[in-house]
């Protein structure tokens, strides 16, 4: 743990599209992707995210691999993200309001129904950057063993101290309101897009 004891929240998510990324069936997702990344970058409590190998800009946090749930899908890659947040309330505010909430509302059109957790959360030292393999291992652990301090979800959160925690819903609403101030242009943009 860093000398000051600070911890960051890591988040990894994974899903499977109903068709190839370039397909018209997934166009609504593709059209919103850049706006979602920009909304995260503007969000209160956002620390950073991994880029993707071969894409310019943001560095990729290790080799991108995928959980075993990709097997049999016919895909070699799948939508996933890996990011760092100051706390669980900041991540929740981003995830369930504004631009990202718009994407979640339409996700059933682009993604297959999952039999695995859509995401996994875990705490790490503030001077540590997670790798894709860490997210994959923890998502599979959450699926196989249920929530723990090593791998949890919004439904069963743990605090930086490793103990079960409560999410401060009032703070989530405050952060969502702050985010809305700086993301109005992005939200107007995504609401005008094709589903």
Give a short overview.
Helix content is 38%, strand content 13%.
Describe the structure.
This protein is 38% helix and 13% strand. The radius of gyration is 16 Å and the shape is globular. It has helices at 27-42, 88-95, 98-110, 132-145, 169-191; strands at residues 7-14, 46-49, 80-85, 119-125. It is an alpha+beta fold and 195 residues long. The chain has a four-stranded antiparallel beta sheet with strand order 2-3-1-4, sandwiched between helices. The chain contains five helices and four strands.
Task: Name the features.
four-stranded antiparallel sheet, 5 helices, alpha+beta, 195 residues, 38% helix
Q: What topology does this entry show?
A:
Layout: E1 7-14, H1 27-42, E2 46-49, E3 80-85, H2 88-95, H3 98-110, E4 119-125, H4 132-145, H5 169-191
Antiparallel strand pairs: 1-3, 1-4, 2-3
Order of helices and strands: EHEEHHEHH
Strands, total number:
4
Low-confidence stretches: none
What distance separates the N and C termini? Answer: 44 Å
Query: Taking all residues together, what is the mean pLDDT?
Result: 96
């Amino acid at each position: 743990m860093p000398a000051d004891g600070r911890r960051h929240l890591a988040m990894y998510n994974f899903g499977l599209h109903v068709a190839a990324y370039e397909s018209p069936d997934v166009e609504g997702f593709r059209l919103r992707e850049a706006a979602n990344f920009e909304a995260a970058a503007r969000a209160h409590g956002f620390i950073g995210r991994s880029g993707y190998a071969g894409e310019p800009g943001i560095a990729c946090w290790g080799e991108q691999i995928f959980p075993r749930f990709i097997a049999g899908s016919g895909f070699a890659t799948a939508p996933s993200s890996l990011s760092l947040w100051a706390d669980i309330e900041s991540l929740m505010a981003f995830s369930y309001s504004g631009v990202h909430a718009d994407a979640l509302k339409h996700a059933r059109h682009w993604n297959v129904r999952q039999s695995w957790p859509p995401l996994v959360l875990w705490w790490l030292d503030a001077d540590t950057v997670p790798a894709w393999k860490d997210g994959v291992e923890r998502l599979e652990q959450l699926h196989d063993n249920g929530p723990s301090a090593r791998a949890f979800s919004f439904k069963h959160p743990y605090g930086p101290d490793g103990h079960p925690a409560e999410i401060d819903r009032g703070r989530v609403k405050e952060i969502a309101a702050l985010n809305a101030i700086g993301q109005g242009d992005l939200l107007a943009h995504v609401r005008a897009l094709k589903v």
